[in-house]
């Protein structure tokens, strides 16, 4: 009986290892490509030309799901008195605040949309709220709201960009959405989008299927490897038994004299 | 055995054809200038590799079971495996395998050619 680690088994081990490693590696490569494709597709919409906010949604409309992250242009007036600070916002590992000021869309008394003007580590460090007319570009984001309550309704700090909370701080109707401005107010840091567009589920489908394919192949290669080692290292008298039990219909097939080159000897 | 043999032959044919289409795809894709008609046809044909890959896996497994039943050696199986990756080779290998299987299992003489 040959030991599994005998010298003459090493070429088989190397071949098996190489085959499995190659297949796994190619699968990982395709998996990475799949993720890269989806990330790229998610970012694509955020790079489009801005369209007027009013062409995407009205103040009473539900959030248009297909427009998450779409750049929009708002022409309106700052409502500086409505400025709030959204707590617990991380940026480069530092927890700080988003500075949010509503902009009335169109005329000065029209419904407003909250605009994230940027990030600051303490509300006291934030520059004074802006006023006057403004034209700004920003990315459209759906309102937040996962049930975190505003524990202190009297200050201007809120836990989330939730319309029910924000409406307490401004005497105006609000859009069911908010914007992240493309150019933060000076003194504030740029905020990264918390919600990127949904990617079509078929994006990169081919890559993930290739990845699975390679991994299935890796399993098969490992199986072949294991079988080869088992066959080579088995006790000689065990071969007949195993062969007899290998197929579901071994007796039904009269094994004729094989003509194949190098095939196994025929049954006795 | 008859079913297995027929399955093997059908799969070999499908893999062989897909491989030829895939080869055509590569020629179109890389042999023509970017944006030209044949080149974009090549881009669209890319999907053939996906089908080839999955059917090839099934082909390899069926070929493996077949070689086990017929009690052939590993190199025989490896040849059948490689045949699914080299354009055109599989048609020759399939004919060879069919000839050997029929010689080894005379009962298949009629069933296999149906």
TrEMBL record, chain A:
<feature type="region of interest" description="Disordered">
    <location>
        <begin position="237"/>
        <end position="268"/>
    </location>
</feature>
<dbReference type="InterPro" id="IPR045214">
    <property type="entry name" value="Surf1/Surf4"/>
</dbReference>
<keyword id="KW-1133">Transmembrane helix</keyword>
<feature type="transmembrane region" description="Helical">
    <location>
        <begin position="12"/>
        <end position="29"/>
    </location>
</feature>
<keyword id="KW-0812">Transmembrane</keyword>
<protein>
    <recommendedName>
        <fullName>SURF1-like protein</fullName>
    </recommendedName>
</protein>
<comment type="similarity">
    <text>Belongs to the SURF1 family.</text>
</comment>
<keyword id="KW-1003">Cell membrane</keyword>
<dbReference type="Pfam" id="PF02104">
    <property type="entry name" value="SURF1"/>
</dbReference>
<keyword id="KW-0472">Membrane</keyword>
<dbReference type="InterPro" id="IPR002994">
    <property type="entry name" value="Surf1/Shy1"/>
</dbReference>
<feature type="compositionally biased region" description="Low complexity">
    <location>
        <begin position="241"/>
        <end position="258"/>
    </location>
</feature>
From TrEMBL, chain B:
<dbReference type="InterPro" id="IPR023845">
    <property type="entry name" value="DUF3817_TM"/>
</dbReference>
<dbReference type="Pfam" id="PF12823">
    <property type="entry name" value="DUF3817"/>
</dbReference>
<feature type="domain" description="DUF3817">
    <location>
        <begin position="6"/>
        <end position="99"/>
    </location>
</feature>
<keyword id="KW-0812">Transmembrane</keyword>
<keyword id="KW-1133">Transmembrane helix</keyword>
<keyword id="KW-1003">Cell membrane</keyword>
<feature type="transmembrane region" description="Helical">
    <location>
        <begin position="48"/>
        <end position="67"/>
    </location>
</feature>
<feature type="transmembrane region" description="Helical">
    <location>
        <begin position="7"/>
        <end position="28"/>
    </location>
</feature>
<protein>
    <submittedName>
        <fullName>DUF3817 domain-containing protein</fullName>
    </submittedName>
</protein>
<feature type="transmembrane region" description="Helical">
    <location>
        <begin position="74"/>
        <end position="93"/>
    </location>
</feature>
<keyword id="KW-0472">Membrane</keyword>
């Amino acid at each position: 009986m040959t030991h599994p680690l005998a010298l003459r088994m090493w070429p088989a081990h190397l071949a098996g290892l190489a085959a499995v490693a190659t297949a796994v590696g190619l699968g990982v490569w395709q998996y990475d490509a799949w993720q890269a494709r989806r990330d790229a597709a998610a970012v694509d919409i955020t790079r489009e030309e801005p369209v007027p906010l009013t062409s995407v949604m009205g103040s009473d409309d539900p959030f248009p799901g297909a427009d998450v992250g779409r750049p929009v242009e708002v022409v309106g007036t700052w409502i500086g008195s409505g400025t709030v600070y959204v707590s617990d916002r991380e940026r480069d590992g530092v927890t700080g605040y988003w500075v949010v000021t509503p902009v009335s869309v169109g005329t000065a008394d029209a419904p407003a949309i909250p605009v994230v003007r940027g990030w600051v580590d303490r509300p006291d460090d934030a520059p004074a709220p802006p006023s006057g007319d403004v034209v700004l570009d920003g990315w459209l984001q759906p309102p937040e709201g996962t049930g975190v309550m505003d524990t202190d309704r009297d200050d201007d700090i809120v836990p989330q960009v939730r319309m029910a909370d924000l409406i307490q701080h401004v005497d105006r109707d609000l859009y069911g959405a908010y914007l992240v401005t493309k150019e933060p107010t000076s003194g504030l840091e740029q905020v990264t989008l918390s919600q990127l567009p949904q990617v079509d589920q078929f994006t990169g489908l081919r890559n993930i299927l290739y990845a699975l394919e390679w991994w299935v192949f890796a399993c098969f290669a490992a199986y072949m490897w294991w079988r080869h080692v088992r066959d080579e290292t088995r006790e000689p008298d065990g071969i007949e038994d195993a062969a007899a039990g290998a197929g579901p219909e071994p007796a039904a097939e009269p094994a004729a004299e094989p003509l194949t080159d190098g095939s196994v000897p025929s049954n006795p | 055995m008859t079913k297995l043999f027929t399955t093997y032959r059908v799969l070999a044919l499908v893999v062989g054809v897909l491989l030829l289409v895939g080869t055509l795809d590569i020629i179109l894709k890389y042999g023509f200038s970017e944006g030209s008609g044949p080149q974009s046809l090549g881009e669209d044909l890319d999907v053939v590799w996906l089908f080839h890959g999955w059917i090839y896996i099934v082909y390899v497994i069926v070929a493996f079971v077949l070689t086990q039943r017929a009690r052939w050696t590993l190199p025989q199986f490896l040849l059948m495996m490689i045949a699914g990756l080299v354009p055109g080779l599989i048609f020759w290998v399939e004919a060879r395998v069919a000839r050997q299987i029929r010689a080894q299992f005379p009962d298949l003489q009629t069933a296999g050619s149906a």
